[in-house]
Amino acid sequence: MKGKISLDLTEGSWTASGGLTFTKASDGRTLRFTGAHGDLAQRSMLVDATVGDEATLPVDLSTYELDMTKITVTMPSVNSPGSVEGRPFSTTLKPDGAAVFSRAFGTSPVPTGSSLATLAGRVDVVPGLG
């Protein structure tokens, strides 16, 4: 994951590589998410979505609230990078996210405004140079 963030997590953005593919067992239809990126100020997560063999399109997938009691920030030092660690928090499906699930599979796994997934993570933070 790469990006620039404020250590109070009120601004900045991030980009993650990799992807995730959902496949419907009954007919093999697929939905692939790649290139996740987020905006900390708006608490939004966008992905590049590919339904089957269609062209990849950006989708405003979900939003989230951060409970700062579930966030640990360790400042960088000369000997080690700092880190931001988030204990599990829920994401909420946005209308565009529900629409891409429906286009791929005929329905969304959860209604718009409902919890889509629970996430947790840790990233190393190095101070910017210059």
UniProtKB/TrEMBL annotation:
This is Htaa domain-containing protein.
